## 1
Amino acid sequence: MEDLKATPLRARHEELKALMAPFGGWLMPIQYAGIIAEHKWCREKAALFDICHMGEFLFQGDIEGEGLENVFTFSVKGIPVGRSRYGFLLNDKGGVIDDLIVFRLGENEVMIVVNAATIPNDFSVISSRLKYPAKLRDISAGTGKLDLQGPLSREVMVELLGAEIGPIPFFKFIRTRILGADAIVSRTGYTGELGYEIFLPSEKAVELWDLLLKDPRVAPAGLGSRDLLRLEMGYSLYGNDLDETITPLSAGLGSFVNLEKEFVGKDALLKERELGEAMVKIAFRVGSRRAPRHYYQILMEGNEVGTVTSGAFSPMLSCGIGLGYVRPEAAALGTKLVIKQDRVEMEAEVVELPFYTGGSLRG
Amino acid sequence: MAKFFTKEHEWVEIEGALATVGISEHAAHELGDITFVELPQVGKSVKQFDTLAGIESVKAASDIYAPLSGKVAQVNSKLEDAPETVNESAEGEGWICKMEGFDAAELGALMDAAAYAEYLKGM
């Protein structure tokens, strides 16, 4: 346990009697009041998440000249200033080294937001693909990140942090001042609800946490509810649904890959597109309240056709839901499957994403 | 009659010819939000400490073991739609099933409430 890193909010989580557990090398809050209560709060009000563990890199330089343009599966210079884009860092086999969001801060300035567990490797891979690696800096330690997510998040943000936040559209952000410090407020998230990701100096994270939590519309939520919220939307979790052996095409995330431009891994993807994917991602719904779980087997007509990569009981749908990878013949919508582990067995059906369509995401 | 507990955190309470079975408040708290209870078939016969039923929470899936040998006489079908009852009242309304045809002598292999409280302290 002593090797685990802690966010600036650790003492706050302990005061709130959060259940803490390791996640991606960090000691993080899993739940406060309870996973389902926090999930419901986020779907109905505004939930506050400590996301300080995630990584941020700052690139300053000529995007094309320095080679950043060819690092990811999407064009960086094609992102207008003030917007962000989701996509991938791939290895030369087309496998996902990380899924990430790039924020175009200025003509020659971008922020790259990456998963916590992959920070060191991402940093060395991206650096190695640049002409002058010094143009990229890891600013994770000095950067705090809080997410406020839920249908009431806009009114809370506007009242407590400023009217300029109100009009920010989905996948756009503003640079502003919060508590006397430079901050970025982005209309993005991982819950399927209207919400914001706030980046600010890490020494201001506690003050912002306290300010937001004083509002009765806001309650803290841990990584347990965050996992349920993202799964109800069908969002991938790196390490479960994506890893270095999985390509974005087999993950059904081809829309975040621009095959018209150059990037590491492109040749492998072109080949895969030509030959067809060996395994493809599916979403499935269980016919009962039983929850599928990571590594459960997926069977079709008695034969093993794949593996579950994420699964849970969905409070919004009142049934089990999951993501997994199967052979292409088992991937068609409506395919009847059996999910199995030891004596646990459940019937399931391939469905479309998102599982939950009632969110306030684009509201 | 008083409740007796297993090391796997089931409880049993004998009332006449029936023994009511559930999971302890400690177990329910540890599991977190309970989302599914796999009730046993009425008529199913089990030996003491065999798998009797299953329970799932937002965190994990677990087996429930029979605290006594016997036959399942009734199940708490309320739990099919309201498994959270186990969180609210694990040792009351959230009972799992009632068994018949048991031998009360098997209680000797279980802990009474005081012994179970000691056992939890040692965990």
Note: Chain A is about 20% helix and 35% strand.
## 2
Amino acid sequence: MSLLASFRDSARAKPILERIRARRGGPVSIMEFCGGHTVAIFRSGIRSVMPERVRMLSGPGCPVCVTSNADLDRAAALAKLPGVILATYGDMLKVPGSHESLAEVKAQGYPVEVVYSTLDALKLAAAHPDREIVFFGIGFETTAPAAAAAVLQAEAKKLRNFSLCSVMKLTIPGAKALLSMGEVNVDGVIGPGHVASIIGADAWRFLPEEYGIPVAISGFEPLDLLAATDAILGMIDDGAPDLVNTYSRIVKPEGNRKAWGAVERVFELRGASWRGFGDIPASGLALREEFAAFDADRRFPLDIPPSEEHPACRCGEVLRGVAEPTDCTAFGAACTPEHPLGPCMVSSEGSCAAYYHYKRQAV
Amino acid sequence: MSDTHILLAHGSGGTRMHALIRDLFLPAFDNPYLRQGNDQALFETPSGRIAFTTDSYVVQPVIFPGGTIGELAVHGTINDLAVGGARPLGLSVGMILEEGLEMALLEDIVRRMKAASEEAGVPVVTGDTKVVERGSCDKIFINTSGVGIVPEGVNIDGAAARHGDAVIISGSIGDHGVAVMSERRGVQFSTPVVSDTQPLHKLVRRMLGVTKDIHVMRDPTRGGVATTLNEIAGQSRVGIEIDEEALPVSDEVNGACDLLGLDPLYLANEGKLIAILPDEHAESVLDAMRATPEGAGACRIGRVVEDRPGIVRMNTGIGGTRIVNVLSGEMLPRIC
């Protein structure tokens, strides 16, 4: 059996599931912050095997989803500037902004290029010296090191036609904002494995220490998620909130210092606007002054009209864990992956898309 | 032929076009039907119903691990005939070439089409070439159509799946999709995944030799196994249940899918078929399939059920269940 297959093996899953089911206790709500976890949980059918007392909630950890309409409108305006080619990840293309998606902007003839990494955007810049390549950089701590590396490479290669429109966000201020709002009851958290691989498992100790909430850092295979859920239930039942790292094959307590060092060298903290949350102080990454030459915000100042939200879209509540996608009257009717009203139906990590693909009707 | 690149003149009807046909296409596809030299191929038909199908191929890149657009165009149309139970009689080939296409690339593609057609024993009986201005197409687009004969007693139909039927597949899934996507994204794996492009008509003949009582047969190309099963569930108004652990996916495809964020259930296959047939025939048909190179990896993946008509469900590896939806909302590039 390959390593990968062993993390999907029913024989190994069975004893963990039996342990989860044998635990006795009151109803609990466990939230996965990461959109990647949401998709993995639905794909492997984990919700369908959980005992009735365990309610699983999806959190705000989908970078496409938390991107605000104001930032989307700015990206569309950048794409329309003469001489600019806007480069972005494919997931962003179909997200409707206030008035139009980047796919619609592209269909009008403005250059919007889909890239798979920031380094592809650098290649675009090298290939089109007469154009300005603006990379619309979304993401969390996981994508920030690649963005930092791209800026450092652009500087080393003296690429003067590359700039970054940074709307990157940090997960921990986001998580704290969600918990401080007090709208949703969270008894345990499945911690984001990829984010923790960069910033370290220990960065999530604030959950047990400040909020008394147990957290288990998890990988993305079914067995990872079962083991993390089991560990969380154990801590809840014992009344002993702590941090458990069930993804230690990838995640170190201190994370990847080299990668995070590059982020700190290139970026500084600033407030950021999150869909569903509004402005969260010190939750965004902005380019430092010394990298101003690569900062699209400084190079192409734009006057963008105030953004608007679709009145029927409840993505904001879904991201805060207050509403489930199926609570939204538009879900599956006015809002589908082909005609999305909000980003949670577009992104491959969005809760609405996961519900739509894997759970549209009760199984 | 001295030209190194395709010129607009190669499609103009003049001497360059005639030279291209005379020197490249006719020798490659040579057979009595082409030699008739008429505007149409004329051939005798055995008794049975005529199956007729067409498909256009625009894959990018045109050369990928395990094949080219050429084999794909031959195999794809043969397979569309084969999964209807038809014995393919002949193919048409229509090519749209972009001005500036390297002649060597065209020659290579034509050579591979010739080899594919010969190996399958299905001749190219008529053809057409057009050249469009640079930028009006992407190197080369190929349309192939095919005719075949469905023997008496064979009634394969997407609406014919019945409660209790077995769902079987002829081999591993996702190989073509991963081969093309990894080439497009410039990703290389230590064990490269190659396209499964191959003709299936000989395999189908073996299966029908065991029993003509095969209810449904499809080749899960664009949209993959998930989309094909949903189509069948909808057409036949039945539920389909598949077992995640029974799905044949190679370790390489699984690994690549994890890396590229793909799901093998939605990836294209170009040399696999799904059959739905009465459970009592399943084992003997599977034995016959496994005795062929095309069906060596054949296995059962699920069953047709009465409840929740139109819905495909999966029993997951950890013992859960979930829906398997049609491909929607995802951006997949041109893969066939």
Note: Chain A is about 40% helix and 20% strand.
